[in-house]
Structure formats: structure tokens, C-alpha cells
Amino acid sequence: MRIFAAVLATALSFATAAFAGNPVGKYSVEGKNPDGKSSYSGTVTVEKTGETYKVTWNVGGTVFIGTGLGDKNFLAVSYKSGGDTGLALYGEDGDNWAGIWTYHNGKKIGAEMWTRQ
Fold first, then answer.
1. Domains of the chain, first to last
2. Which of 41, 46, 55, 68 has the lowest tally of Cβ within 10 angstroms?
3. Within a 13 Å sphere around the CA of 65, how many CA atoms are in the beta-carbon half?
């Protein structure tokens, strides 16, 4: 039984390490708007599209679609929803991603945390 537990623990640690630094996946998102007062939550899906990534947020029923580029350490995303456009930058945080963002012509930044589902 101890051998089985050790093998299982080792396998799970390798599975977790395989995700670390790879932004592809589904996440819960929590964030603060650039006003610093209001917050939001929703979901984010990241898909690999050749050399780029398609990033889709669903926040309160509003869908934002973005195109990202990066590697295992960072992800830069330009996004659009209706008339809103902007830019976001994320860094890997273990299995999750943390970032900042702003609207086009923005003067302040918001913050966001993606937690892998």
C-alpha cells in the first residue's frame, strides 16, 4: 500500500508540473477594475492557435475575445468586446496566472488572477 501511495504521489507531481507554465486551459478569473474599487469574476479559456493563443473571457455574461502571444513565463493579450479594446499582460504563478490590464487609451490598470479549473 505504501508503494502505491508513493507511486501515486509521484505521478500527481509530474502531472501538475506538466501544466505549470503552460497557459492553455480553463480558469476561474477574479479581478479588480482600473477604478480600484469594483471587482468582477468569471471564466477564462486559453487555446493554442498556431504560434498564438485565443483567450476568451466570460465576465457577467459579457464575452471578451483576445489574441495572445508568449511562452511558459508570460502571456500578452490584446482583447475586444463590442467597442471596448485593451491590453493585458500575465505571468505564470505556478499552475495559475496573474496579470494586469488596461483599456485602449487607459490611464489606470486593473489586476486579474486566473485559477486553473
1. 21-116 (2.40.128.120)
2. 41
3. 3
